[in-house]
Design goal:
By secondary structure, the chain is of the alpha/beta class. The protein has 2 domains: 55-207, Glucose-6-phosphate isomerase like protein, domain 1 (Rossmann fold, 3-Layer(aba) Sandwich); 228-347, CBS-domain, CATH 3.10.580.10. The protein has 15 helices and 14 strands. A 5-stranded parallel sheet has the order 4-3-5-6-7, sandwiched between helices. Helix 14 (310-318) links the parallel strand 12 and strand 13 (326-330). Helix 1 (14-56) crosses helix 7 and helix 3 runs parallel beside helix 7. The two termini are 38 Å apart.
Length: 351
């Protein structure tokens, strides 16, 4: 089979490419060593910046949290260039962790988007130098309408820092770029600082996994946060019989509900036992249909609460001996409120 790799419009046979790479031999090995050295140097430089940031956090961090928590509107995050990209991500992280937030582009702000910022908001402006001209309109607007302004900058005496109510001063860490020009360490530090703010606000508010799921219903994360109550069967779908019912009735219920088991409820509504397909096979003889449910059931069935994660339910089914394919969902009084089968977890994408 002939496999071609297309590059700059020409088809290059794979065998020819391998031959070229083989001829380059030691040169390529040396280049690979240099590449790894550069990569590690960049990562270490950015780690150094993060270490400086962690040690430099002070009361201004807490003051910023106070302003964000007190906002009755939104936290507006802004920045230009690479700082703008980081600002977008910070706004998204804040919003997804329970703090209403949005990104406002500073260049668009002076062409009408200042209307997105209102009294009750808090503005966080990102600029490593603190001298970005594009931020001027937002700075002036926040001062005119007394909207709290937080500066995230390394420019201690910059126009942005001078205008702000609170300054989150970035550490004087060198950029990882050998020319010291490309925003690398500075943007990594900004990103980490935004994460720190978001998580600190999350913990202040007592943001729970249930809150998290409300904002993350899609994708793998949403599936991991599904609760038993989201996928369980309820009402008439729950297979239940009384202890004094004949086994003939239990088998009819098992067949009608198609779950391969039936729960046994006492007169007070408590779940006191379960009968599975396996129990039927173990008790199969000519007298089975004439026995009562209580004579065949086994007590202490595995149960789970409706508020537990569906992933926990799947783990209970598969991770304990003996394994089971289903669980009854019970309330605090051990009365069944639902039923969950392994297939329900698999259909929901929980595995």
């Amino acid at each position: 089979m002939r496999i071609n790799v297309v590059k700059t419009g020409f088809a290059v046979p794979m065998n020819d490419m391998r031959a070229t790479l083989a001829r380059s031999g030691g040169g390529r090995a040396a280049g690979l060593h240099d590449d790894l050295t550069v990569g590690r140097r960049v990562i270490r430089a950015e780690i150094g910046g993060l270490e400086q940031l962690a040690h430099s956090l002070d009361d201004s961090f807490c003051a910023t949290l106070d302003l964000c928590a007190a906002a009755t509107g939104r936290v507006v995050v802004t920045g230009i260039g690479k700082s703008g990209h980081i600002a977008r991500k910070i706004a998204a992280t804040l919003a997804s962790t329970g703090t209403p937030a949005q990104f406002v582009h500073p260049a668009e702000a002076s062409h009408g988007d200042l209307g997105m910022i209102g009294v009750g908001d808090t503005v966080i402006a990102l600029s490593n130098s603190g001298e970005s001209d594009e931020l001027a309109a937002i700075i002036a607007y926040s001062r005119r309408f007394e909207i709290p302004l937080v500066a995230v900058t390394a420019g201690r005496a910059s126009p942005l820092a001078e205008a702000a109510d609170v300054v989150l001063l970035l550490p004087p860490a060198a950029e990882a770029c050998p020319m010291g020009l490309a925003p690398t360490t500075s943007t990594t530090v900004m990103l980490a600082l935004g994460d720190a703010l978001a998580i600190a606000l999350l913990e202040r508010k007592g943001f729970s996994t249930a809150d998290f799921q409300r904002f993350h219903p899609g994708g793998q994360l949403g599936r991991r946060l599904l609760r038993v109550s989201d996928i369980m069967h309820t009402g008439d779908a729950i297979p239940l019989v009384a202890p004094d019912a004949p086994m003939s009735e239990a088998i009819l219920v098992m067949t009608a509900k198609s779950f391969g088991c039936v729960g046994v409820c006492a007169a007070d509504g408590r779940l006191v036992g379960v009968i599975t397909d396996g129990d039927l096979r173990r008790h199969m003889d000519s007298g089975l249909l004439g026995r009562t449910v209580a004579a065949v059931m086994h007590p202490n069935p595995k149960t789970i609460a409706a508020g537990r994660l569906a992933g926990e339910a799947l783990a209970m089914m598969t991770g304990h001996a003996p394994p089971t394919t289903s669980l009854f969902v019970v309330d605090d009084g051990q009365c069944p409120t639902g039923f969950i089968h392994m297939h329900d977890c698999l259909r929901a994408g929980i595995a």
